[in-house]
Amino acid sequence: MHTIRFLALVIFACHLSAEQTLRLPSIFGDKMVLQQGKPINIWGWAKAGAEVEAQFAGQRKSVKANGKGKWMLQLDKLLTSFKGRELVVTSGTEKITLTDILVGELWVCGGQSNMEWSLRASRDSDLEVASADSPHIRFIRLPHIARPTAQEDFTVTNKTSDQGNWRQAIPEQVENCTAVGYYFAQRLSRRLKVPVGLIDVSWGGTMAQHWVLKDTLKPFPEMQPYLEQFDSAMKAWVDGGEKDGADKRYAADLKAWEKARVEAKAKGEREPRRPNQNNYTTPANKRQPGGMMNGMILPISKMTIAGALFYQGENNSFGTSWKPFHRTFPAVITDWRRVFGEADLPMGLVQIAGWSTRRSMTYDMNHHTNVIREIQHHTWARFKNTGLIVTYDTNSNGSIHPGHKRPVGERLARWALAEVYKALPHKSNKPIEWRGPIYAGHEIKDGKVYINFEGETARGLRLNKDVAEGFYIAGKDKEFKHGRARVQGSQLVVWQEEIKEPVAVRYAWSNLPHGTLLNFRELPAYPFRTDNWPLTPHQSTGSYEVDKISK
Question: Under DSSP, is residue 33 helix (H, G, I), strand (E, B) or coil?
Answer without folding.
Answer: strand
